[in-house]
Amino acid sequence: DLYRKVFVFRKDPSNAYVVLRATLEQPLQNFTVCLRSYTDLTRPYSLFSYATKAQDNEILLFKPKPGEYRVYVGGKFVTFRVPEGHRDWEHVCASWESATGIAEFWLNGKPWPRKGLQRGYTVGVEAAILLGQEQDAFGGGFDVYNSFSGELADVYLWDVGLSPDKMRAAYQSLRLPPAILAWKSLSYEVKGDVVVKPRLRE
Asked: Subcellular localization, per the record (predicted)?
């Protein structure tokens, strides 16, 4: 249970990462991924990387530069342009549904204009799920200049698109539906220089 705790990725650039273990019963037709990050990086970095042997960017949450987030599904991506933060915690959620090919992006509890992405696609299940690095091969192929440095918390993955109420609940750290990956019952393994610490402030 990582309640009120954070992963601190100490180095920049870094070869460290955290492996998340999830049991997926079937391929994903829908998903929502949420997390909170705190960093002063201005170079590109990866927040959440879900790779299969067939596709290294099966699901990827990536920040190429200040004021921009990219959401990848099956190797294709859409860009969400956001006001650059005030060096504070940023809470992001990305959801996607295969039937409509709609990608949603929420920043600090607010939705951005929806975009179209990979209609009819299915996300594979045999996945390597990593925090802090971007996979260019299954479970590896890292570029340290895409690594994350800073603090990460409140990581979740659902196999459904969350409702707007639940998106806001995730931002406010309220009670959430059962998830494939849940911060309060996370199965993880730290690889390299990552430290679990109490959160300094809300």
From this structure: Secreted
